[in-house]
Amino acid sequence: MVLHGVSYAVLKVRLASIGTHQNEANLRNKISKGIMGAQLFLQILTVLGCEKLDMSDVGKILAEIESNQGQT
């Protein structure tokens, strides 16, 4: 989201445009805790316009999520 300059409010609207309805707090919680399902993850990638997914980037994202969980 940061790389694409998309806020939770914008993400919510974009997801709604493809029929997925989530509120901002719910999205923030799922994303920050890394507890979303694969379907929501793929929908988010779609509405963000991601065309390629490098698995090394996924590993970095997961590591960041894990380090953030240790801070809460």
Low-pLDDT runs of 5+ residues are none
Number of strands: 0
Q: What is the helix/strand order?
A: HHHH
How would you describe the shape?
globular
Strand % is: under 5%
Biggest sheet character? none
Distance between the termini: 21 Å
How helix-rich are the residues, as a percent range? 55-70%
Chain-averaged pLDDT: 86
How would you summarize the topology of this molecule?
Layout: H1 8-17, H2 24-33, H3 38-48, H4 55-69
Helix pairs in contact: 1-2
Describe the structure.
The chain is mainly α and about 70 residues long. It has four helices and no strands. The mean pLDDT is about 85.
Task: Give a concise summary.
The protein has 72 residues and is mostly helical. The protein contains four helices and no strands.
Fill in the keyword field for this structure.
72 residues; mainly alpha; globular
